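User: Structure with cytidine-5'-triphosphate, tokens only please.
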Amino acid sequence: MARLLLIVGGGIAAYKAAELIRLARKQGHEVTPVLTNGGSHFVTPMSLAALAESPVYTSLWDLKDEAEMGHIQLSRAADHVLVCPATADLLAKMAAGVADDLATTLLLATDKPVTVAPAMNVRMWQHAATQRNVAQLRADGITVLDPDEGAMACGEFGPGRLPDPEAILAALPLGEATTAPLAGPDGPLSGRHVLVTAGPTHEPIDPVRVIANRSSGKQGFAIARAAAAAGARVTLVAGPVVLATPAGVTRIDVETAREMRDAVMGALPADVAIMVAAVADWRVEPSDTKLKKDAGAPDLQFERNPDILAELGEHPDRPGLLVGFAAETDDVVANATAKRARKKADWVLANDVSGDVMGGDRNRIHLVTADGSEDWDEASKDAVAQHLVTRISESLS
Ligand code: CTP
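Assistant:
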């Protein structure tokens, strides 16, 4: 199971990208599509999003996406980048290091392996300029697949056709992915229902503004992914984040703390609940109309939100193993120990969020249980998730 960032260029072969997404998902991979302007003339973002079960990115200037997940993170969150189909124009831009849209910016910013599947008219493929660009890309360490030979949509014959999606996927070194394959019914968590919350909540102030926090959702999504890989039935209640749904996970999208609470309670019973979300503690009564600055500083009246973890701690259907997180900036273990008792959780994973943990890819955990606390080495969020799932499997067995 790997995370694939798929850049779909403009060209008649773009429709084959849809089939490639379907196949990749079937094999358990996560696909985040990026559609170039040219590509959007051949396939719609909607069809790619539906097949990928992921948001589709199209523009560098989409402020919402840049705020929530900049182009650097988008390329870092992948295990592999695939350009399919790559046009002659895209190859030329890549070879020259041009970054004038989202796709080319991602390709310049990525530190992950890149594979390119070109598709174009035979003369364009054979043109000295294209061949020069292909040689340059290969010299730069990019894998450029050879196009197939055959009859082309333009009526000519020769090399330039996009290979079959099966062949393209088979050419990718996806076995080097960081996450384990789905274990299915043989996994240590098979037959168990694991409920996970992830991401921030957004509390509306007016139709255009919200109270939010910096949670990216990455740690919670990694835990959901690892639990599914261990064979669990996983329900992931996600706040507003732009992350692909891990394979085998049932995702419920929510916005506010109260929606998150309702979704969590509606998903019970569960054997294990892992509350990773950074839930807003406060909400305001939102204005129906946009607050205007000439009316002066808004007089926001804050009300307490439900504490979902604490409600689960006292619920008649309390999950057998209740795990919370504690985001702390000081006295990390002491605060987490108090939080564990106050919220009646079994375990609390405390993390120091004074650095760049929120939004970053690494985490340092102190596990607080009834027996005291233990320090885990700093690790990637994926590795933390794997470790937690192993500990949960051991404790349930
Ligand atoms: N949590 C929750 N509902 C809330 C607030 C927090 O379910 N309204 C859960 C989080 O998902 C996490 C744990 O409680 O598992 C601790 O969250 P944290 O934000 O660290 O603690 P707070 O309850 O906000 O406490 P404090 O403000 O004292 O840090």
